Amino acid sequence: MFKKHWLNIVALSICAVATAFFVLDIVGGNNVPDVHAAMADGGTVSGVVKFPKEYPEREKITITKDQAICGAFQYSETFVVSEETKGLKNVVITIKGAKGAIKPADTPASISQTKCQYVPHVQAVPLGTKLQILNHDGILHNVHAYFSGLDPKNTVFNKAQPKFLKKISENLDKAGIYYFKCDVHDHMNAFVAVMDHPYYAVSDENGAFSIAGVPPGTYTVEAWHEALGTLSKEVTVKAGQKSEVVFDILPNE
Ligand SMILES: [Cu+2]
Predict the structure, then answer these.
(1) What is the reported pTM?
(2) Assuming Cys at both sites, which of 87, 92, 167, 212 could form a disulfide with 206, CB separation 3.0 to 4.6 Å?
């Protein structure tokens, strides 16, 4: 269960670790554009978002509508924490101020509505990428998209998606976080981070991330999580080296 005391995030150490050669590994299949491959003189920023001590349990949500498709209950995707590493999944990591060209993805990004869940829960895409919202469930969903927060005045679009409407296509034309919510099934939500630079990642199931090909310099690295908000740290990137950033999340006690 999410508790308010997790809202105070404390970011701890940054250490730069020299490596003998340029590392192009991308952890966990995060959405990192190909532009990185061209920047052979860049450095890599990698690290982890984790709970060093206790961590929140995954909330069990009772489902009251469309149980034949949605099931009787679901587990919240807000806090998905690895038992082994205590790493937190679905944190959007961005390197602020690093200059680099972006190119919209050649194929549209997608959010699938499957058994009353949005899949994926969190993703990051380059600005200009089209988004397809797919309904695999054969029941009515309602796609309510907001920009920068769940305030009615932030509504970008609000569309019913009846069972016969398998696909809605939308353009996400601003850089920032889009929030998606289903007005039929209150537990359904998802997030799409739209990026106006190429230096970003989404933490994987171990809380790990890696961003390669970053131009040398000193930057702020931001980590955004749907319930914890944003925290930031400074990192220095050197050509051909790996810089490690660890975001430790501590309870506010
Ligand atoms: Cu729904």
Answers:
(1) 0.85
(2) 87
